[in-house]
Model the fold of this input.
Amino acid sequence: MAEKKHFYAVIKPYRQDFIINPKKEEDQIMSDHFLYLKSLLEQKKLYLAGPTLISEDPFGLIILEVQTEQEARNLLENDPSVKSGIQQITDLRPIRLSLTRK
Done:
């Protein structure tokens, strides 16, 4: 089996006031987004994920642990928040995790 690689992704909401002024349907989609990421964590494909805490520049950071960049892209594109169009992938790059805490 090939060695797993890490990719970091930035996903951003389609509007700036997304965090402070969510619409009802967005709340459900973001709940589905959280559950989707949780399932990736359980499958050991997600290394970490979380949102920034600056409401003026909202985005989420995701680090995936997968075989290929295409696999990473597929996982991100199947995220309910991306599929629905309320968030978009703005950056996806390979990353070497040189130092991590155990």
DSSP finds three helices and four strands in the chain.
